[in-house]
Design brief:
By secondary structure, the protein is α/β, with parallel strands linked by helices. The N and C termini lie far apart (about 40 Å).
Length: about 240
């Protein structure tokens, strides 16, 4: 039986006497993937900030002692003129070129070991000139530096086109298998949640549902989150 790497109990967050999260409790098993879904304003990013201990909260957030967290933000607004290359950005966190090449390889920039020149091209590219999908992968590479065993993704595909979206989730899935990672991600895409998550936490300021996606997400929980217009959260068929 896998142990829990994270236990959250009675978590509540208030801003200016306004309750953003109310009495949230759940647990995440080691080496599993948990999705967090809910409408805009449901408290998903606030929950992440609580898990990272970045904001005051009531209740308990208990990580196992060996936890090392990597965090991938939703998206960074980066000025195209910013004179910062991918390599310089990654070297803020890691001075070893070998380790930088290793994480760039892990996120798919190095297809084969002898194609290092391809990687070098990306390393010399300014951060602001990357496509949405490339920037996403660089942010994942940044999160992987320091060898985390937990990765938190705040909407991994915000601002990434549909073709890129599949590759980002495929990449997350592959990284989880390769590196024994526990993954927690925020998403709006029910298909993605069903495909990749072992458990799902449905939020709308309070816990609406929690458990395996196929059983936890039902008509009632969707209506509690999104009202009657639940169909808009399904991917359009292509």
């Amino acid at each position: 039986m896998q142990e829990d790497i994270l236990t959250v109990s009675g978590l509540s967050v208030e801003f200016d006497n306004h309750t953003v999260l109310d009495d949230i409790s759940f647990a995440v098993r080691r080496d599993s993937t948990m999705a967090i879904i809910g409408p805009n304003g449901a408290g998903k990013s606030v929950l992440f900030r609580s898990l990272l201990n970045l904001i005051p909260y009531k209740g308990t957030v208990s990580w196992s002692e060996d936890t090392r967290i990597g965090y991938v933000p939703q998206k960074l607004a980066i000025d195209k003129e910013l004179p910062l290359t991918v390599y310089e950005f990654l070297s803020f966190k890691e001075k070893s070129r070998d380790k930088i090449l290793e994480v760039m390889g892990a996120v798919g920039f190095l297809k084969e070991a002898n194609h290092i020149h391809n990687d070098t091209r990306v390393l010399k590219t300014r951060i602001g000139n990357l496509s949405g999908g490339e920037l996403q992968r660089v942010l994942i590479a940044y999160a992987l530096l320091g060898k985390p065993n937990v990765l938190l993704f705040d909407e991994p595909t915000a601002g990434v086109d549909i073709a890129g979206e599949e590759t980002v989730y495929g990449l997350i899935h592959k990284l989880k298998a390769d590196k024994d990672l526990t993954i927690i991600f925020i998403s709006h895409e029910l298909e993605v949640v069903n495909k990749y998550a072992d458990s799902v936490l449905c939020l709308n300021k309070e816990k609406v549902c929690f458990g395996p996606p196929k059983t936890a997400i039902d008509k009632e929980s969707l209506e509690k989150m999104y009202g009657e217009e639940t169909h808009i959260y399904h991917h359009h068929d292509h």
